[in-house]
């Protein structure tokens, strides 16, 4: 049994601060193995900058409601998300927050429900979800947290709301995530050929491990990470040997009705790849609209932006050359380019 367990709002703030630290420490290795969906070597950078926005928002959000703190973090992450992996991380945080709203502490069943909701949101946010990525790792973590060994951790004074049950759910979720990361190598042909695990999957594993550290005081051992193919510090930067991607990553936020958002997603699917669309914040019942975060890889970003502007004026526009190396600390505004 874990000696001390903390699962309140303060622990959630600590989780995101820990995640920021661990992603900063691991960003170089995550970049080195980033070859899917494009070998642009920026997954670690993207995840770090996204979770930094989330951690800052959580730290500035008062109160004891776990969901409210994480909702502020999720919305900030969505607004400031960097790249494919950062956008999916923001979706994950926003979905977890929605499940935990109204609660002052997390328990095992709530964790399982939050991960399950995040799994559904993440898969639905992508137009063409692919196994062997962050999605598979999130699915495994959700299944682990809801597994019989997590729900019924053993005899004693436990129960669904007990610290014992929460510890069991977290342990099972992280253990399942580790196995799913290992499996990514065999699920995607490009990873199998390169003999490397998925960078986004490892990034999500680190975020889940940071949650376990914040709540239980225990993280992943270095042996677990060193055992992942391509992830040792002395391994080469595998992405550098891959063919350069062609095109531009376009990201923006736009306010649309669900019907117009569905239409935009369909048209972006026709002209680009890696389309992600997810709501930002609450649906406005009176106006019948919602803010949406949009992510797409396109050959002609001007045409894609014109398409979006035919429906509504976008905000927080950024362009990223997919083959560019990510300069530290840069973030492109409209009309600029930056590896991100």
Keywords:
340 residues; alpha+beta; 2 domains; four-stranded antiparallel beta sheet; globular; disordered C terminus
Textual characterization of the structure:
It is a single chain. By secondary structure, the protein is of the alpha+beta class. The protein has 2 domains: 9-241, DhaL domain (Serine Threonine Protein Phosphatase 5, Tetratricopeptide repeat, Alpha Horseshoe); 248-321, Alpha-Beta Plaits (2-Layer Sandwich), CATH 3.30.70. Helices cover 54% and strands 11% of the residues. The chain contains 13 helices and 4 strands. It has helices at residues 9-32, 43-59, 66-80, 83-100, 108-125, 134-145, 148-151, 163-187, 189-194, 199-216, 222-226, 258-271, 301-309, and strands at residues 248-256, 272-284, 289-298, 315-321. It has a 4-stranded antiparallel β-sheet, sandwiched between helices. A hairpin with a 4-residue loop joins strand 2 (272-284) and strand 3. The longest helix is centred in the middle third of the chain and has 25 residues, at 163-187. It is globular and about 55 Å long.
